[in-house]
Amino acid sequence: MSWRSEFEALRGLVEGRLRKCFSVDCPQRRLLEAMRYSLLAGGKRIRPVLTLKFCVASGGELERVIPLACAVEMIHTYSLIHDARPAMDNDDLRRGNPTCHRVYGECTATLAGDALQAAAFATLMGAELPAEYVVAAGAYLAKAAGEMGMCGGQELDTSDYTVRDEKGLGSINDLKTGALLRAACVLGVIGAQGESDPARLRAAEEYGLHLARAFQIRDDVLDVVSDPETLGKPVGSDALNDKPTYASVFGLDRCNELILNETELAVEAVRGKFGDWEFFMDLANSLAERKS
Q: How far apart are CA 112 and CA 92, in angstroms?
């Protein structure tokens, strides 16, 4: 099986489980509809696939970590809902569809994000794993999503924190983008009951760190060279808002060098340390060249 075929198979497992969520009929069903609208609006599902694949590559049982993978995607989706609101990016499109607040209003969209965050941890706690591994996974995901992770990075990105160099940009992106991607990888190892294997945990973290850096730099490049139809969201907003990005600070040629370097570091982190580590190499190379 090619890596891409395997990716789609793993993606299908996640998609099937997510489609079963939030479909109960209740008085607050409009909130559930908003949650499903954003959760099922497409997306590459990179994070949950990484959770599943790191589990399998660590010798774990795939079915037992699907709740962990779904939890990661719920956290990611909640962040997209909140990020698109008028108080932050004020986007009309996300994943090629009207944003949640444009369809359901800002109040319901805010609640949909809040509820997805809560649902993520409820879903994670339902994993059929020994309690200590569920606790370890929940603790890691909570830290990645909170003030020392994704939310902390978002605060830096939307505040007066000024950056005009690689270190400053990295301090934002390692939290805003990197924390959840690292968690996706690490949760796969934990779900395989591999928490007692520090070398694999470090390798998964390193892979997620460098993959996220390459991913964010590529995002910044696409915001300059792509179009809304291809990207599925507005382009050029960073330049309009005079927001420092890798593309505006370093230029496209240097960005392409950085993407290559970070991709190589991601691959080196996992080389020979996991079964079928070539999957992670092929995925990293594909993301480095993506058009959307």
A: 17
Q: How many CA atoms lie within 13 A of 261 on its CB side?
A: 8
1 burial type by CB count under 10 A (0-12 exposed, 13-18 middle, 19+ buried): exposed
Contact indicator for 62, 55 with CB cutoff of 8 Å: yes
Is the entire prediction scored with pTM above 0.90?
yes
Give the span between the Cα atoms of 172 and 153, in whole angstroms.
Answer: 5
CATH superfamily label, 3-288: Farnesyl Diphosphate Synthase (1.10.600.10)
Tell me how far CA of residue 187 lies from CA of 180, 200, 221, in angstroms: 10, 11, 29
CA distance 222 to 133: 38
Report residue 260 as tokens. Answer: 């290559």
Q: Retrieve residue 21's tokens.
A: 């969520």
Q: DSSP readout, 167-231?
A: HHHHHHHHHHTHHHHHHHHHHHHHHTT-TT-HHHHHHHHHHHHHHHHHHHHHHHHHHHH--HHHH
- Which residue, 146, 140, 133, is CA-closest to 186? 140
Reported as a single tens digit per residue, the pLDDT across 275-284 is: 889 999 999 9
